[in-house]
Design goal:
alpha/beta; 10-stranded mixed beta sheet; 48% helix; globular; binds ligand 6CS
């Protein structure tokens, strides 16, 4: 069989490197073929999710940034300052988290999706037209966010005017000044040339980009145990591969940006400068619980317990 697998980034981006590894592993260990569909070939993130739920695609890599309206609890990944920054601690959290490996699969299953794995894509930075050192600098800034209600709440709490948009509208939106800021991990800022249309990069330490690989559940459930095992093994290999691949990636990408655009400014907010953002995060956490009720609260608490288990 040929299995169709779509993702939200280019083939050379993190999701593409993960997908390529997964494909190699499946093809080396079975007689199935994987056909990869990078960003742009089948539409936006919301489109590839619909196609997977409809069974037109077998696999989809979609970030919780776009899954929030389908699975409200997935918005937990946008509670600011919840996740630690890129580190072995973060990796170990993804490997061992009960919230991710046991609780989320049930929530995805209710939407016809077999959650295969979640993995990090790097520290999220803000890129803006004006420098940012605190919430006051975000006042009146139309800041593009993924289409995720809690992310909208975060940027409201951070003082900005959040503007949810699909990915395809971001470069043009910045170019024409419809928006004046956006956030993404550094590799993506570099590969998609966001630095051409923004002038300032800010590390606020507020999040690490999380993404998820899923399969259509009917498809997955209909496979032989042997094929399911091939998929599980390929996921595990690609997962470790992508963590390793990302070591030093933020710094490398930043160096490329600085070389291509020496005028770019790069600011790492001090703990003192982060304090008002951390304060705002408390309200965002409360909003998350309001939005998701007991189920969200349980996930959040489990995530905190999982994080405590890996913090050294
Ligand atoms: O900001 C976005 O919409 C995109 N960011 C990343 C890192 N991956 C895919 C997503 O579409």
């Amino acid at each position: 069989d040929t299995w169709r697998y779509a993702f939200e980034e280019a083939i050379t981006d993190v999701q593409g490197v993960f997908a390529t590894k997964f494909k190699e592993e499946v093809e080396a260990n079975s007689d199935h073929e994987i056909q990869l569909f990078p960003y742009g070939t089948l539409g936006e993130s919301a489109d590839i999710m619909e196609q997977t739920q409809a069974g037109i695609l077998q696999f989809v890599n979609q970030s919780p940034g776009f899954t929030g309206s389908l699975i409200p609890e997935a918005q937990v990944f946008f509670v600011p300052y919840l996740l630690p920054q890129e580190s072995e601690e973060l990796n170990e959290f993804f490997r061992t988290s009960k919230a991710i490996n046991e609780m989320f699969p049930e929530l995805y299953a209710a939407q016809g999706l077999e959650l295969l794995t979640m993995y990090p894509e790097g520290e999220v930075v803000m890129t803006t037209k004006e420098p940012v050192t605190g919430p006051a600098d975000l006042n009146e800034v139309k800041f593009r966010v993924m289409t995720n209600p809690l992310l909208v709440e975060s940027y409201k709490a951070f003082g900005a005017t959040p503007t949810p948009l699909p990915w395809g509208e971001v470069y043009g939106g910045l170019q024409t000044n419809i928006i004046q800021g956006q956030e993404n991990p550094m590799f993506f800022v570099e590969s998609t040339k966001m630095y051409e249309v923004t002038d300032h990069i800010t590390f606020a330490g507020h999040n690490n980009f999380t993404t998820a690989l899923m399969a259509n559940q009917d498809f997955y459930a209909g496979l032989s145990e042997e094929d399911q095992q091939v998929i599980q093994n390929a996921v595990e290999t690609a997962f470790e591969y992508i963590l390793d691949y990302q070591q030093g990636l933020t710094e490398e990408s930043l160096a490329k940006i600085e070389e291509d655009k020496p005028s770019i400014t790069v600011t790492r907010l001090t703990e003192e400068q982060r304090a008002p953002f951390r304060e705002a995060a408390k309200d965002v956490e409360a909003t998350f619980i309001e939005m998701t009720g007991d189920s969200g609260k349980e996930i959040l608490e489990q995530m905190k317990a999982d994080l405590a288990n890996v913090s050294g």
